[in-house]
Design goal:
The chain is α+β, with helices and mostly antiparallel strands and 234 residues long. The chain contains 7 helices and 6 strands. Helix 2 packs parallel to helix 5 and helix 3 packs across helix 6. It binds 5-O-phosphono-L-ribulose. Its cofactor is Zn(2+).
Length: 234
């Protein structure tokens, strides 16, 4: 993908998080990667979304070297880079402080799969990371945040659980494309809100048959599906 096209797609994903009500002020950040060149494009740090332009999107290499240095890259850059290096399947990463997902992150509670809406996008609970050690916080906070996400996803397919809640911080979400990641970030907030409300309505919730959850996920993302807005292509 040409760098200009990648920057435009990344800008659009950043603006989609605003339109979806997932970010306020300058919180959050979206990035995308062109796997052929190993170029990552990410939101500039601290720039108000309503003033953001494609040429302000910052390009860096997968090891973090600035390709163009007109703007300072997002302060969460190293988290995004850790995820791109660990998950070669993904093409975009989005971080938000969306309200309900952040409630679960602050409460250190995974988002449970309480319904088929969840199952359509996330295979199983959306996990919460561990807290970072004092040394990690002091010496390599942003990169260690990415390490904790990779650890909590473990050996699962990152495209089957395209999100994790960073303990006491907020969600990081990903997908095959910036558009896919923006949709996953929106759905994550929706299922977090549904789960929180269901848990308030009925604290002792009945279990859902795994067969129902699996059917919904595989129906949308079966082994030969194309992820993203268009859903399964089977
Ligand atoms: O996670 C946080 C702050 O906790 C960041 O998303 C937020 O400050 C946005 O920083 P950037 O503008 O991307 O550097």
């Amino acid at each position: 993908m040409l760098l200009d096209a990648l920057k435009s797609a990344v800008l659009e994903a950043n603006l989609a998080t605003v339109r979806s009500g997932l970010v306020t002020a300058t919180f959050g950040n979206a990035s995308g990667i062109d796997r052929d060149s190993g170029t990552v494009a990410i939101k500039p740090s601290g720039v108000p979304y309503n003033e953001m332009t494609p040429d302000q999107i910052v390009a860096v290499s997968l090891d973090g070297a600035l390709i163009d240095n007109r703007m300072k890259p997002s302060s969460d850059l190293d988290t995004h880079l850790v995820l791109y290096r660990a998950f070669p399947e993904i093409g975009a990463v989005i971080h938000t402080h969306s309200t309900y997902a952040t409630i679960f992150a602050q409460a250190l509670v995974p988002i449970p799969p309480l319904g088929t809406t969840h199952a359509d996008y996330f295979r199983g609970a959306v996990p919460v990371t561990r807290h970072l050690s004092e040394e990690e916080i002091r010496d390599r906070y942003v990169a260690a945040t990415g390490d904790a996400i990779v650890e909590v996803i473990g050996d699962r397919d990152p495209l089957e659980v395209p999100a994790a809640l960073v303990a006491s911080h907020g969600p990081f979400v990903w997908g095959r494309t910036p558009q896919d990641a923006a949709l996953n970030a929106l759905i994550l907030e929706e299922v977090a809100r549904m789960a929180w409300s269901s848990m308030m309505l009925r604290p002792a919730l009945p279990a859902i048959p795994d067969a129902l959850l699996d059917r919904h996920f595989l129906r949308k993302h079966g082994a030969h599906a194309t992820y993203g807005q268009t859903g399964a292509t089977r």
